[in-house]
Amino acid sequence: MPYVMNGGVNVYYEVEDGAELPLVFVHGWTANMNWWKEQRSYFAGKYKMVFVDNRGHGNSDKPLEYEHYRFENFVSDLDLVVKHAGLERFILVGHSFGTMISMKYCVEHPEKILALILIGGGTKIKALHKLGYPFAKLFATLSYKRSADFVSKLAVGKKAGEVREWILDQAMKYTPPYSAMNTYKTLTTVDLRDDAKKIDKPTLIIVGEEDALLPVSKSEELSRMIRNSKLVVVKNAGHCVILEKPEVVNKSIEGFVSKLTG
Fold first, then answer.
1. How many whole angstroms separate alpha carbon 110 and alpha carbon 175?
2. Any alpha helices (H) in 188-240, and if so which ranges?
3. What is the value of pTM for the model shown?
4. Per-residue pLDDT for 108 more than 60?
5. Which of 148, 183, 160 is nearest to 245 (CA)?
6. 3-state secondary structure of 4
7. Of 182, 254, 193, which is closest to residue 226 (Cα–Cα)?
8. Fold exhibited by the domain 3-261
């Protein structure tokens, strides 16, 4: 199983071989590479794909100290993974916090990026849902399971009960409370508004119409900031649109990539 080490932290990734342009998938907060299961299945054999477990998540190391969760560490982890996987140029696909990692990576390494696909993302996050409830206080006063259950309800659309149960189970299994809190501290202090304006790569932006964590307005803002971008709003889906409406997401990605390969 392939790992790369960065500052004493092992970062886990997996590779699916394929014939066309490589796609690199970066998941979001309290998630892991399993979140991309629908895309992995749909594109199997067609595209070479790399899936990363961010530090503190999935099968990667989960250090206790906050210093390991600084934003630059997530970005440098990604750089080491793609180098170790032997990729020179690729399409970067991010979901939620993964969109922030992807945008920063694109600005720092534009020569490696063919295009961006940003799903349920944004440039700056003060609060993770439309009511502005302070998640840090929530985690401090409630049990982790109750807190995760609350977040999972916000993470899906109105008709995605099975998806909600699945993502809750994944979070409880693969993201311990201290990893969730350390990553949360980082993602809520990142501001990529200036960086987004520097991106000139072809960019596909996808968001669920019912996204309560990073609402449509965040993706609309991204679309205005990033030149040469296209926005797709998916009906009857929330923040976990990649799991709720995989057929729409996959077709959108396929159409976008096909135009690049022309």
1. 31
2. 193-196, 216-225
3. 0.94
4. yes
5. 160
6. strand
7. 193
8. Rossmann fold (3.40.50)
